[in-house]
What we know:
Layout: H1 2-18, E1 23-24, H2 25-31, H3 33-38, H4 44-64, E2 70-73, E3 79-82, H5 97-109, H6 116-128, H7 155-164, E4 168-172, E5 181-193, E6 196-203, E7 208-213, E8 217-223, H8 235-245, E9 250-259, H9 264-269, E10 272-277, E11 280-288, H10 291-296, E12 302-306, H11 308-323
Antiparallel strand pairs: 1-3, 2-3, 4-5, 4-8, 5-6, 6-7, 9-11, 9-12, 10-11
Helix pairs in contact: 1-4, 5-6
Amino acid sequence: MAIAKAERLMNLALCLLGTRRPLSKRELRDSIEAYVETFRSGNGSASDDSFNRMFERDKDDLRELGLVIETVESLDGEIGYHARRDSNRLPPITLDAEEAAALGLAAKVWQQARLAGAASGALQKLRAAGLPEDVDPYEAHGALEPRIPVHEAAFEPLMLACRDRRPVMFDYRKATAAHPEPRHVEPWALECWRGHWYLAGFDRDRGAERVFRLSRITGRVRTRGTGFTAPVPDVVTVRETVAGWAGETADRSALIRLRTGAGYPLRAKATAVRELGDGWDELEIPYGHGLDAWLVEFGPDVVVLDPAELRADVVDRLRAVAKG
């Protein structure tokens, strides 16, 4: 069935691209073998209705694939369709070595993710469109091996929901909670921060924007209807939100005790370091939202000294982890 539909769509596209004048539904129905075979035995309005539904679906599928189909009304009121070649022809693609290298690095980023096939296919299309054969976008900077790991099952359905602007529902376990809770979210964008994926969106139950770490989503992501109830901010705002919730926005300092030889990411962020002896150092680090979750990842190698609320948040998270 999939092959038959693909062949039907291909024939419809070729017919619309090859005609010099708009063709009516009746002419397309009589010209494309798949339509003739399907509706040969049918008669009357039922057959016409079935054809109309199939044709509209096929036309929508072609448009979704990028084909520009124009609808033209003749002098006698009949509707015709055609796809002008000049409207469906991309301009020549010219890339210099630096641009090709950038595309190659972008494709490498997704080699371990579910977009690997799409990234490789895009490069193949660029080759077909005229990317110079002596330019290898994969090897231009072979010393660089960028990767964006995607291990969470929630990534793909959330990526599609962000693209299609579809509300979702999933079970989410906060770092300070022992059990997950259902969330109804209007997804805006996915961001990768410090090797972790985050979803920024509008939480319908709480009536405010929220950021969710994908590794804390349990179970299956389900779509719930269509349409958003809250305005979607621009990309810059979403990224700033993700950065803030991920702990990149700091407005004060925290004092921690760190085991010697451990916690190098924390040491890189430290504004002051003092050796305490007995295998411990004292660090002053920027303190923003999400720092408690980051500190918990270092386990017994970190002890929070100040402020008291940060220490309490870290203790609460450790207790939640202990409860399972």
